[in-house]
Amino acid sequence: MTGSPALMVIRAGAMTTVQDDGRYGFQDLGVPVSGAADGEALRLGNALVGNPRNLAGLEIRLSGPVLRVAANRVHLALAGTADFGIRRHSDPQVTLPAEPWRSHLLEDGDEVVIGSVREGAVAYLAVEGGFALPAVLGSLATYGRSAIGGLEGRPLRVGDRLPLVCDDALGSGNRILPTDPRGDEPGGAIRVIPGPQDDHFLPTAWEALLGAEYVVSGNADRMGLRLDGPALRHDPGFGSDIVSDGLATGCIQVPGNGQPIILLCDRQTVGGYPKIATVASVDLPRLGRLLPGARLRFAVVTVAEAERLRRQREAFLSGLVSGIAEAAAPGEIDLEALYAFNLISGIIDAFEPVPPRHDEGP
Amino acid sequence: MKNCEPRFLSLGDTALTVEFGRSIERPLFARVIGLRQAIEAERAAGGLSGIIETVPAFRSLTVHYDPLILGQEALVGQLRAVLATAGTETVSGRRWQVPACFDEALAPDLGYVAEQSGLAAETVVADLAGTDFLVYMLGFLPGFPYMGGLPGRLSLPRRAEPRLKVPARSIAIANEMCAIYPVISPGGWHLVGQIPIEIFDPASTPPALLAPGDTVRFLPVDRAEFDALRRDATDGRFRLVPKPTQPDESEAPP
Known about the structure:
Largest interface: A-B, 46 and 47 residues
CATH topology of the largest domain in chain A: Cyclophilin
Low-confidence stretches of chain A: 340-362
Shape of chain A: elongated
Structural class of chain B: alpha+beta
CATH class of the largest domain in chain B: Mainly Beta
Low-confidence stretches of chain B: 247-254
Helix content of chain B: 10-25%
Oligomer: heterodimer
Largest sheet of chain A: 8 strands, mixed
Distance between the termini of chain A: 42 Å
Order of helices and strands of chain A: EEHEEEEEEEEEEEHEEEEEEEHEEHEH
Strand content of chain B: 25-35%
Number of strands of chain A: 23
């Protein structure tokens, strides 16, 4: 190849943005955190190609891009579920189906073809070495509203050139996770912690939030999920406005109409609506993947319980990352890697008071 | 001032808000800034590991932290200890004199504000230019300052019809607040002037001109001077620096 290494954007996808684990340290100046809506998936994608966990990848929303390799060799992985294929330059008429959750090696002129995202709103493409883009305020995360970060602060367009750090790959392109990362994921109700303004609502609001089903409305993006369902009524003694205070990702804010909004990664830093509860961090990656029409129920947990659930999930994820290994051949399961994973899980169980699980491995 | 015990409010398992009261009052805000400075001093000395960042607002400080490093119960204990040593006397942020043009073309709502408040436009401008505005917090947009101290006679509810495009660098007022729009944005506040300099630039360090606790005084300039300053600011020849601190002046607790 000639020139500096890059991925050429042949098709952009519905909304493909460069995202890392977020832009921290500037919320006091009103700068949103942004970053991957499903940080777990990006982290696993990075691990599959041997990257540090916080390196930026591509967040693919709803439908994906077609990218042509303009580099010697590129090692990449798709984290998430999507229609995914590879077109080899030697046989460009044929799109070979490719597996997500494993790494692939592409050569100059090969194309990555990503279609519809399945089982949720987002998937991530991680590339060994990452993108050669300038960090803005310490992060590559794209925040579109202020055109900060990523590639010119915006989603990819046809004709874009996404510069790469590496012209060649170290990885073999056969790295796999020891088990399905979504296998251990909590299903069921979204866990919430009351507050910070849980006392600004009538008891009926709490009955509704914990008893009723809510549906993600069409108004769902990286900033937040508007929900449709029974209205959450404010205590008239407090009303539906507060003097603005700090927000966190996962806050469930309730404006005057009583319809809750769950704040996601592009949320503002402060806000003036009461927040009845906040989603436990263990359930944030799940929220980040929700599509309009998804049905939700909520359950209350204590902070201590949320912390325990998060540690348990973290133990599972770090076990997954440590258990990544070379597949014996494409498609085959590597028994050694599986064995290593189970060993690691055993060690983690010894440290953590986690009940034994029977659903972690195949 | 009600020197009541702060409340610790969970924002899930990744953030905690320390709330000093419910209203917008300078003494409450002084406690917010006092706690923040004490936390940052501890962090600079290598303490309070697990805290990611602190975000001041009118009456509370939100502490973002990593729950895999620090539990909330432990954090509350540590913050109680810090609160015992935190200053609450004054807010001693930087003091800015920001050139501002109140020409009709740059202040489309000045006439309306004058009419509604029963004042001459010149009096409204004199009020705006005679006020030390206190930056309580930044939010809504990166670099957007919520500034208190607006004279009560200029207090008006927001516009019934928000504008779709407020010009960048517009000075705007609504209710008891004054603000400056960092970039073109939708907005419902009344536009009463414009400044010639950028207040948010992600390529600068820090990216925002103003920070919570700073004081802003508008310095009226005419249109010709505004245009000249705007050109110089765009070319990088004009850069605002804060006034040197004068400890004797206007630092007394309000």
